Amino acid sequence: MPRPPLPPFTPETAAQKVRLAEDAWNSRDPAHVALAYTPDSRWRNRSQFLQGREAIEAFLTLKWRRELDYRLVKELWATQGDRIAVRFAYEWHDDSGQWFRSYGNENWAFDAEGLMHTRLACINDLPIRESERLYHWPAGRRPDDHPGLSALGL
């Protein structure tokens, strides 16, 4: 089943793809998120290497059990052909109440149907105080009027 927008991407369609990905991840629904990837998709996430939707879904299930009250903002960095580069920051806390802002970059490559076949992510975690949080919307999709990364100075 095609997942528009489809490559080759323009800056506008790449930005749409980025927002759709952000929305899906903010749902924190591993099964839903995994459907955006090819059945044999390859991931590098920090020091983990995954392959396939089942592995992606299992990874995301564990991630969101550990990263509580997760809120994510993604921003298009660059695009060409079937590739998109993204930068992002997300906030979460662990089960002890320690808050973090995790910063990173992702390189994505898509098949002709708009499914991601490769995701390479580099991520760093910064402990923050709860008072330093910037993302306060209710769980789920980031509101359209909430500032993006550039507007927040991130």
Automatic annotation (TrEMBL):
Q: Which InterPro entries match?
A: DUF1348, NTF2-like_dom_sf
Q: Which Pfam families match?
A: DUF1348
Which chain regions cross the lipid bilayer? none
Looking at the record's lineage, which domain of life comes first? Answer: Bacteria
Q: What is this protein called?
A: DUF1348 family protein
The root-end lineage is: Bacteria, Pseudomonadati, Pseudomonadota, Betaproteobacteria, Burkholderiales
